Amino acid sequence: TTPSPEESVIINQRTAHFEASLNEIPKDYRQIIEMRFLEEYSYEEIAEKLGRPINTIKTQIRRAKAAVCKLIIEKE
Asked: How far is CA 23 from CA 4, 27, 30, 57, 68, in A?
């Protein structure tokens, strides 16, 4: 189904908030979020590409998601 005009506006707003929030978090967090959720790398692939332990990557993803969520909530 196609979203209604109102739903489209909400989706566009949320996308804009997400993108703006990504630009406000530290570069390392932004890179990891982009790799995981936009480029769809696995945790293992991210760890390998960045040369970091997988548990470090998992922790950084969790912290980055929390930072992005906090910024999005503040914008709404």
From this structure: 29, 8, 7, 19, 9
Summarize pLDDT for 16-45 with one digit per residue, the tens.
Answer: 888 888 899 999 999 999 999 989 999 999
| Cβ within 8 Å of residue 56, ≥6 positions away | 47
- pTM for the model stands at 0.78
Q: Which pairs count as long-range contacts for 57-61, CB under 8 Å and 24+ apart, including other chains?
A: 57/32, 60/28, 60/29, 60/32, 61/32, 61/33, 61/36
CB atoms within 10 A of CB 25: 20
